[in-house]
């Protein structure tokens, strides 16, 4: 989803890090959708970076910027232990090693999509930039390991990495995915589309959010910032909105009225509650803010971004 | 070195974690020395845990306790990039995966020797237990990745891991090794043995130390502590002694007089200075202290432990 939105945005803008895009290759394990309106060449390739040799092929054209978003998400990485390590750890390592092996001064900006799942409870009230990564999921473990590789390979001069720890992306468009965090989006998205949604956790659960639009902003800004400004600590917690489920629902009501809220059905799920209990609720993301990363101001803005970007500004057929 | 001392100690005591030892297997890439006086069976095996199939063989006898100390040290891991990742990351992962694959309820205590090299500058004055791991060496990166694996595999119930972040071990007996930290020992050891030593860094460099005897204590205590007391965060910064090089030299003088101190020759080494500049000087290791881990009280005690354990209590032929 983020990859598609990023490709659409690049096709529309035609530039990245202040330079014109001359070519873009989209790679996914399923056929990537080609964005409309690109004024440069766009290739789409079906391949798994965790398969032998794939990464070397991908970097042989020496792209200036590589966005590494490929991942098995949290729910699936928890359910399928070996698959999660293969895709999220080995895939990342293969890609970084392929870049390293090009050599000859090739040192692309590699933007790595990490996650706040690298953190695990217990937490301070607001998690600072120097708080340790003690993930409570295999997904978070794999992302934390990818961050370590990215920093070491950058320090060694093999590449120029920037890792962005994405907040939970909300409101995700389209179908529910296998992330354990999926309900944070579905309790907003389904009601706005006149469908019922299931809320599997209590309303006092607090979490850290940014819209898909903000996430694409993060990735593009990470491609553009000066390497020296990042220093040796290549991975950054992104800014976001700290909100409870109750606050999410209040924002939905504020934007769209009472009717959508009535479509949220409470049905506690112990597995999801257990996973979510280990997740963070609030960050003090001052390093990223100082480097110019920006998210929404509150959850109401996140709901409005969904209505604008996915519903053409209309709720139930009316202008919002 | 630590493995040998640990084996000697186990042979002498015949017990671990309150239980009698029935069998011990020593594994190293070079022929391990058999300890004297064991009242139980001891095997010595030459094998590389980073080679395919080796780890599965090693765990097939289902040992109750596994000490994983095998590592390429910091200087070598920095000089030989691929070897460091193969031994320190892949070797660790192969071992943990081999334990996981035994299944059938097998869940040994795995004691993992990690290192304060998982931390990288800049630091607060005293590094707390929740400070982030941002290593500035490939060795530290590999150890931090091993820690993440250990915690995830423990959380998933595949094993019962405890990671101990060892201080720099000082005074190391025997020959200089390829660790960048080797001089911290040699400036004490060589003068006490009437030999010249080279000091490659300024005297105001502060670092974090424990004796080999304390390190063996850490490993044995890590084998014995209750899993529930450790919780989900399986890796612990060990207590130690914070001291400057000047303080090390003062302790040497206090224990052994002026003559050994005159054998220290200053010769700055830019590579070692750069590596050491990223290393920590002081920790607040309260989690480990609360769990009963103990180190020396000061550097003078560390020097005396060396004299007792390695020189038979005698300096220059005289009782210390």
The domain tally of chain A reads: 1
Largest chain-chain contact?
A-B, 23 and 23 residues
Low-confidence stretches of chain A: none
Quaternary structure state of the chains depicted: homodimer
Anisotropy-based shape of chain A: globular
Q: Return the structural class of chain A.
A: alpha/beta
Q: So, the CATH homologous superfamily of chain A?
A: NAD(P)-binding Rossmann-like Domain
**Rg result of chain A:** 19 Å
In the CATH classification, which architecture of chain A applies?
Answer: 3-Layer(aba) Sandwich
Number of strands of chain A: 15
**SSE string of chain A:** HEEEEHEHHEHEEHEEHHEEHHEHHHEE
> Which topology of chain A does CATH recognise?
Rossmann fold
Give the neighbour order of strands across the main sheet of chain A: 5-6-7-11
N→C terminal distance of chain A: 24 Å
Provide a count of the helices of chain A: 13
Share of helix among residues of chain A?
40-55%
Largest sheet of chain A: 4 strands, parallel
The average pLDDT value of chain A, as a whole number, equals 95
Strand residue percentage of chain A: 15-25%
Highest-level CATH class of chain A: Alpha Beta
Tell me what the structure shows.
Two copies of one chain form a homodimer. Chain A has 13 helices and 15 strands. Chain A is an alpha/beta fold and 320 residues long. Chain A has a single domain (47-319), classed as 3-Layer(aba) Sandwich (Rossmann fold), CATH 3.40.50. In chain A, the strands form six sheets. In chain A, strands 5-6-7-11 form a four-stranded parallel beta sheet, with helices on both faces. In chain A, strands 8-10-12 form a three-stranded mixed beta sheet. In chain A, helix 6 packs parallel to helix 9. In chain A, 45% of the residues are buried.
